[in-house]
Amino acid sequence: MTPHAPATVRRTALAVSTALITALPVLAASGSSAGAAAPAGPAATAPVATVDVPAARAGKKNKKKGTQKYHHRAKVGAQVLRAIVLDQAPGVEGDKVVDLRIGRAAANINTRKASKAVSTSKTLGGRGLADTDLSGLLTGMVAKAGPEKGKEEVPSQTLVPVPAAPLLTLGVSTGETKARWNGPRTCVPGGKTVTSSSSSTADLAVLPSVIPGFGALLGLDGTVSATQKTAYLPKKKKSGLKAVATTGLADLGLFGDMVSIEVVSDPKMVATATGRPGKAKITYTPAVLEITGPDGSPVPIPTDGAPAEIGIPANPLLGLTIQFPGIINEKVSENGRLAKAKSVTLRLVLTLGGVTIADVAVAPLQTKVKVPKGGITC
Questions:
Q1: N or C: which end of the chain has fewer CB within 10 A?
Q2: In the predicted model, is pLDDT for residue 23 greater than 60?
Q3: Distance between CA atoms of 348 and 101, rounded to whole angstroms?
């Protein structure tokens, strides 16, 4: 039993390279200045009001400065897995890449938007799915709050299984989500969540029976889930911000359990920012896994993100590369204003005859929080 510590990934040269997690959006703030047009023509006989321009500009500057002490944002996401299935995969037709994103819980907080807090839960998403009817699983649950005080909650909903062969099979899935806001220039009290959501599904199989005689590329027997939540961290009249992403994994089987992966403990990522020097951080708890190869022996996997090759004696044309990337991108500012990171628990690359046909990221997580200098003035 070996805990796999976070590390920077040294990606190998693969036939196909793909981003494991959707890149973070760029949030930009813009402002506009207004000017008064000078009246033309003869001077008016009525008294003319005078404006102290320096005082007016100072007032505007102070107002903006006060607003800046409140603006903050967060982005958090947890996902059971993401699978890139290429058009070379046997039994997958359509001459396209299929991008499956399964079991995602996510949220955005942005005080510059009309909906200040948005929380979502989604069982299945992605692209290249047009040839398969997955409409029963593609509807996401969304809760929005703001700009006024209020709360929106989508209670737990159950989605029945939908056949999606040859890409995947899913059992019963559930999801729920909620968002809360306390109104303009205020913060939700500490101890109460601003956003929270979860998405879970049972008995998941990716590429079931695509390669005859080898079972599914990846199977999770049991219930797997992704969850997220955000909250404020109060300190006197200033607040920090916290975002948490985690997954609950079941034991994994590759090629119909020819390779088995026991999940001893689940991964978790927490980002906090307070706006005070040295008080921003990323806390990442990697999953603890035990892997058994086709011959029944333990498989040692490098903890520095380097790949490990696993041969499949029953079919020498099949190749499997396993990596433990851990944290793949992290930034924490010394002034305490920003903390962000991405991670992947397990990466699986399947090849057939030297050609990559599937690239799977298990339990990708991401968190980002950003607050004003000194903390949020609520």
A1: N
A2: no
A3: 15
Angle at 257 between CA 255 and CA 260, to 5 degrees: 110
Angle at 326 between CA 354 and CA 195, to 5 degrees: 120
Contact residues for 197 (Cβ-Cβ < 8 A; gap 6+):
105, 106, 107, 119, 120, 121, 141, 143, 175, 176, 177, 178, 227, 228, 229
Q: Are 366 and 61 in contact (CB under 8 A)?
A: no
Write down the pTM of the prediction. 0.79
Residue 14 has pLDDT above 60, yes or no: no
Only one residue has tokens 């955000």, namely 230
98: helix, strand or coil: strand
**How big is the CA angle at 124 (ends 8 and 211), to the nearest 5 degrees?**
80
Distance of CA 60 to the CA centre of its chain: 38
C-alpha 119: how far from its chain's center? 12
Q: Which residues contact 191 (CB under 8 A, 6 or more apart)?
A: 231
C-alpha 168/C-alpha 164 separation (Å) is: 5
DSSP 236: T
Helix, strand, coil percentages for the chain (3-state, nearest 5): 5, 50, 45
CA atoms within 13 A on the CB side of 85: 27
Instruction: Report how far apart the first and last C-alpha atoms of the chain are (Å, whole number).
Output: 46
Cβ atoms of 319 and 304 within 8 Å: the answer is: no
